[in-house]
Amino acid sequence: MSTSIESVLVENRVFPPNEEFVRNAVIPGMDAYKALYKEAEDDFEGFWRRQANEHLRWTRPFTQVLDSSGAPFYKWFADGELNVSYNCLDKHVEEGRGDQTAIIFEADDGAVTPVTYKALLGRVCRFANGLKAAGYKKGDTAIIYLPMSIEAVVAMQACARLGIIHSVVFGGFSAKSLHERIVDVGASVVITADGQYRGGKALPLKPAVDEALSQSNTEKVRSVIVYRRTGGDTHWVDGRDIWWEDFEQGQSDECEPVVMNSEDPLFILYTSGSTGKPKGVQHSSAGYLLWAMLTVKWTFDQKPGDVFWCTADVGWITGHTYVAYGPLAAGLTQVVFEGVPTYPNAGRFWDMIGRHKVTTFYTAPTAIRSLIKASDADAKVHPDSFDLSSLRIIGSVGEPINPEAWVWYYKNVGKERCPIVDTWWQTETGGQMITPLPGATPLKPGSCTLPLPGIFAAIVDETGEDVPNGKGGFLVIKKPWPAMIRNVWGDSERYKNSYFPAEYRGYYLAGDGAQRDNDGYFWIMGRIDDVLNVSGHRLGTMEVESALVSHELVAEAAVVGRPDATTGEAVVAFVVLKRDRPHGDEAKEIAKQLRDWVAKEIGPIAKPKDIRFGDNLPKTRSGKIMRRLLRVVAKGEEVTQDVSTLENPAILEQLTESV
Ligand code: WT7
Asked: How far is the CA of 229 from the centre of ligand 1 (A)?
C-alpha cells in the first residue's frame, strides 16, 4: 500500500507538456481539458450524447442517453443500434482508408506481415461467414484461446460482426482455468491454435483445449477451430475439430454486419476478485466502443499518421480495448507483436519501435523495470543504442509505476520529449479513467494525475463521504460512464455487492485505495481487497489458496502479496501440510511440487515466488487468519503489532523462514 505514497516524497518534480506539443494536441492545454470536463459536469447527458453521435456510426440513432431506472444496472444509448465491427472496419474502407495499414504484425521470429483495413475486413468477413455456415449466431458465446496474432483480432472482430459474445482466455492460463470459463460462459465454439511461439520456443495450446473439453459440462461445444501456427502433430477429434483454413475455405469476403442493440453484450472477460472464483466481467457494445475510441484519441492524442503499439496480450482487457477495438475504431495503424520483450534480446521493444516508426508506445511498469535491469547489464540493449526518434507519446498501464522507473522511461525512452501517460483503469471500467492528457496535463512521476472528461472520480471514506485532499480513502466513481461493466456474467448479486455496496451511496467502488494531493492529483496506493497485482496481472489471494489446498499434501494455506522490485507484487504462500513440517531439501522439493501444481491449476503467473511451511497459521482465538501479520512477515519485517490476541504466537517464528 505504501509504495506510491513514498514516491510522493522522493519525486516531486512536475513535468509540463512542451508548447509545440500543446499547440498540435487533440486536447490542447489544461484550459481545453477543463472546458471539456466542465461540459460533462454541466450537462452530463448532453456531453455523452454529443460524443456518441460524433464518434459512432449508428444504424439506428438512440434517443435516450442514460437509463438509470434499474441502477446500478445502467443502460447507455439503449434504443440505439449499431455494429462494432462495422465501426472498426467498414467505416474506414467506405471513407477511403481501405489501403491504409491496419495491423503490422511482427512474429516472435521477426517476420513482419502488414494487413490493410480492406484486407482485414475481408478476413473478418470470411471467418464470420464460416461461423455463420456452422450455425453460430447472435447471442451464442465463443471462447477464444489464441496467441497474439492477426487471427486473434480477426476472431474477436468476426464475433462482434455476428453478435457472438466472445470470451478471450489468455494463452498462459491452464486447462483448468480454461474449462471453468468454457462452462461459465456456456460456450458452443472454441477458437484456438495448435501452439504459439514465445521467446524462440514453440509452446502447445491445443492440448489444454482438449483437456478442458474432456471434462464435464462442455457438451455444448460443437466446434473447435484451430489456427495452424506451430505445425507438428496435434491430437484431433473428428467432427469437432477443424483447421482455420478449412473453416473459412470458399467463404465470401463480404458479410453483412448484424445489427446490435447498444446494450447487447460484446464480450465477457474474466478477472480475479476477492473470492476463489474469477468474475466474468460483461461489457456492452456501444458504450464500450465509444470509450475505447475516445480514450485512444484523447489519452494518446492520436491523429492520422500515428503508429500505435500497445504491447498487451489480447487475453487481458488492455489487449481488448487498446489492440482489438480502440485503435481500429480510431482508424490507426498499429503494431501487434507475438513475442516477448527479451527475445532475441532485451532490446526487442526498442528495435521494433525504430523499425516500425512507432509514435505511440504503451506498456506495463513490470516490462519497463525488467528492461532497465537488462540495459544496466548490457549497453547493446539499452534504448540509447536504438533509434527512438519516431516516438511522441509513451504510456504505462496495469500497476503503479514507481518514480525511479518513471524517470528512467521518461529520459531513456521518451528522451525528455515524450509525455508519459500513466493510465489508471480496470477490467471493469472498460477503458482508461484517470490519466494525464499528453498535450495538457503537467506530469508528476508516480501519479495517474486527473480523471478524463466525463469521469467523476473521488476519494471517500467507508460511509461514502468525500475525504479532504491529502487523506487516503477508497477510490470511487460517482457517476456511471458508457464503458462500465454491465454485470458479472450470470451473477447479478455479485455485481451489486462487489461494485455498488450500500454504504457507498450508489458510487462505483473500484477496490483501490488512493489519495489526492493538493493539486487534486490521484495517487493509487493499491488494492483494498484480497487482490494482488503481479506483473500487472490481477490475482485473487483466495484463488491461489484454493489451488494450494486442493493439493493432496496441503491442509491449509494463506497467500499474501509482498512488494517486488520487478513484478510490483510477488505471491508469498504460507502452507500447513497434512504431515509434519518439512525441512531442507525435502521442503524445497515439496515447494517445487506446489508451485507446479498452482501453475497447472491456474497458470504460471500465479506461481508463488516464496513458500513457507509452518505447523500452523497465525490465527485469532476465533480462528481468523491474521493476514495483516502475514504481510509483515512476508516482507521480512519485525512484527511490532500486538500479538496477544494470537492463538499461537510461536508460529510466527517458523513462518519467517523461506524454503
Ligand atoms: C487494477 C486493475 C488497467 C488495465 C489493466 C489492468 C491496478 C491499473 C494502474 C495505474 C496504479 C493501477 C489497480 C486496478 N492499476 N492501472 N496506472 N496505477 N494502479 O486491469 O487487471 O483489471 O487490474 O490494476 O489496482 O484496480 P486489471
From this structure: 31
**Which residues are CB-neighbours of 39 under 8 A, at least 6 positions away?**
46, 47, 453
Cβ(512) – ligand 1 distance below 6 Å: yes
Ligand 1 atom closest to the CA of 531, numbered from 1 = 25
Distance between CA 545 and CA 50 in Å, rounded? 47
- The Å distance, Cα 195 to ligand 1 centre, comes to 29
Nearest by Cα to 318 from 392, 395, 398:
398
Q: Rounded to two decimals, what is the model's pTM?
A: 0.95
ipTM score here?
0.99
| Cell representation of residue 208 | 489444454
State the Cα–Cα distance between residues 314 and 152, nearest whole angstrom: 7
Q: Which of 1, 394, 396, 538 is the pocket-test mutation for ligand 1 (most atoms within 8 Å of CB)?
A: 538
Alpha carbons 361 and 358: distance in angstroms, whole number: 7
Report helix, strand or coil for 312.
Answer: coil
Phi and psi (nearest 5°) for 94?
-60, -30
Q: Are strands 101-106 and 508-516 parallel, antiparallel or unpaired?
A: unpaired
Summarize pLDDT for 171-186 with one digit per residue, the tens.
999 999 999 999 999 9
Please answer whether residues 130 and 248 qualify as being in contact, where contact means their C-beta atoms are separated by less than 8 angstroms.
yes
Please report, for the chain, how many H helices and E strands are present, in that order.
Answer: 22, 30
Residue-wise pLDDT for 330-372, tens only, equals 999 999 999 999 999 999 999 999 999 999 999 999 999 999 9
CB 598 within 8 A of CB 547: yes
Distance, CA 433 to ligand 1 centroid (Å)? 10
Q: CA 247, CA 203: separation in Å to the nearest integer?
A: 23
Under CATH, which architecture does the 531-655 domain have?
Answer: 2-Layer Sandwich (3.30)
φ and ψ of 483, to 5 deg:
-95, 10
